[in-house]
């Protein structure tokens, strides 16, 4: 981004140009010089901006599903939101997470490969405390999980993967399953260090405890469905195609819907004084000729034209003409 000059710097620059101390051609030459930008081949971008937006949409829905799930499981206030969606080398992701954390390694057939849900220890231990009947507090010293604690954590996060399936079902039908739970990132090598991964970070609050949940999705795993992450595909799938049975059922329900039908004899304009002085027996002259057909409205739309009359002693109207779509009148 270009540097913004202060007013004093602008004045000094104009004074130098006016006095001849600085040549305007030198400034133009600097602008035309080729600018060099450093490119790191280890951080080659594999996900387009459109695909990143697609991942964001999917995992905003996932965040809502996780909020509902954890709220029911922990019986306390839970708030989960997407904080960021980034792409970076896998090695950089490993270095960015704590040395001791909860790593849920899972698979999601038909996609090939493994993915990771990393849960910050603050969040994990707050969950564990709630599951064991506590207030959701963090212990002063965090050590390795016992066998019982590990089983509890595996059960909770294994069911959390069901909501992962729900969030992705508009793109692909996944069958996620927890493979193993680790605590040391050094023992987790799901892809090569230089492989690009998408990292979705969720800001999480459980009671008074805050922390992050990170979802690591390697590019090599998502590669078969990358075209489906584009905005064009996303919005095209929103148009639901109804089967014939559903169409017939919808048609039958529409046929039973009740709509008001109004036959308008005509209109007239009178003053407020005339309206207030109306009494029984007064006649109001309408602007409609007795030879003209009456407008018959369905809702607010004129659909038919007809003639007034009686049927079995009741006032009725005979439909003479059905208006075509382009002939319909709107009020």
TrEMBL record:
<comment type="similarity">
    <text>Belongs to the FliM family.</text>
</comment>
<feature type="domain" description="Flagellar motor switch protein FliN-like C-terminal">
    <location>
        <begin position="252"/>
        <end position="323"/>
    </location>
</feature>
<protein>
    <recommendedName>
        <fullName>Flagellar motor switch protein FliM</fullName>
    </recommendedName>
</protein>
<dbReference type="GO" id="GO:0003774">
    <property type="term" value="F:cytoskeletal motor activity"/>
</dbReference>
<keyword id="KW-0283">Flagellar rotation</keyword>
<keyword id="KW-0975">Bacterial flagellum</keyword>
<keyword id="KW-0282">Flagellum</keyword>
<keyword id="KW-0966">Cell projection</keyword>
<keyword id="KW-0472">Membrane</keyword>
<keyword id="KW-1003">Cell membrane</keyword>
<keyword id="KW-0145">Chemotaxis</keyword>
<dbReference type="GO" id="GO:0071978">
    <property type="term" value="P:bacterial-type flagellum-dependent swarming motility"/>
</dbReference>
<dbReference type="GO" id="GO:0009425">
    <property type="term" value="C:bacterial-type flagellum basal body"/>
</dbReference>
<dbReference type="GO" id="GO:0005886">
    <property type="term" value="C:plasma membrane"/>
</dbReference>
<dbReference type="InterPro" id="IPR001689">
    <property type="entry name" value="Flag_FliM"/>
</dbReference>
<dbReference type="InterPro" id="IPR001543">
    <property type="entry name" value="FliN-like_C"/>
</dbReference>
<keyword id="KW-0969">Cilium</keyword>
<dbReference type="Pfam" id="PF01052">
    <property type="entry name" value="FliMN_C"/>
</dbReference>
<dbReference type="InterPro" id="IPR028976">
    <property type="entry name" value="CheC-like_sf"/>
</dbReference>
<dbReference type="InterPro" id="IPR036429">
    <property type="entry name" value="SpoA-like_sf"/>
</dbReference>
<dbReference type="Pfam" id="PF02154">
    <property type="entry name" value="FliM"/>
</dbReference>
<dbReference type="GO" id="GO:0050918">
    <property type="term" value="P:positive chemotaxis"/>
</dbReference>
């Amino acid at each position: 981004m270009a540097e913004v000059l202060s007013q004093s710097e602008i004045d000094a620059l104009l004074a130098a140009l006016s006095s001849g101390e600085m040549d305007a051609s030198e400034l133009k030459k600097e602008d035309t010089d080729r600018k060099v930008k450093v490119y790191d081949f280890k951080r080659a971008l594999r996900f387009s901006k459109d695909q990143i937006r697609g991942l964001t949409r999917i995992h905003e829905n996932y965040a809502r599903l996780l909020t509902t799930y954890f709220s029911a499981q922990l019986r306390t206030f839970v708030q989960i939101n997407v904080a960021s969606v980034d792409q970076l080398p896998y090695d950089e992701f490993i270095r960015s997470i704590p040395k001791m954390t909860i790593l849920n390694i899972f698979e999601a057939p038909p996609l090939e490969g493994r993915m990771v849900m990393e849960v910050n220890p603050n969040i994990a231990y707050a969950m564990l405390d709630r599951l064991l009947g506590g207030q959701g507090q963090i212990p002063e010293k965090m050590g390795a999980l016992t066998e019982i604690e590990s089983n509890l954590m595996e059960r909770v996060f294994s069911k959390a993967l069901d909501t992962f399936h729900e969030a992705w079902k508009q793109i692909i039908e996944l069958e996620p399953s927890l493979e193993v739970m680790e605590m040391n990132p050094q023992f987790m090598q799901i892809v090569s260090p230089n492989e690009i991964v998408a990292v979705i970070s969720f800001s999480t609050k459980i009671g008074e405890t805050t922390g992050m949940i990170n979802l690591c999705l390697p590019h090599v795993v998502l590669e078969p469905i990358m075209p489906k992450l584009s905005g064009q595909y996303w919005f095209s799938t929103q148009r639901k195609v109804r089967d014939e049975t559903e169409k017939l059922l919808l048609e039958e329900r529409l046929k039973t819907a009740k709509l008001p039908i109004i036959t308008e004899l005509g209109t007239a304009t009178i003053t407020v004084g005339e309206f207030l002085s109306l009494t029984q027996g007064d006649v109001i002259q309408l602007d409609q000729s007795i030879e003209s057909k009456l407008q018959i409205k369905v809702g607010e739309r004129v659909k038919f034209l007809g003639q007034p009359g009686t049927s079995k002693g009741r006032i009725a109207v005979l439909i003479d003409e059905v208006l075509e779509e382009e002939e319909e009148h709107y009020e």
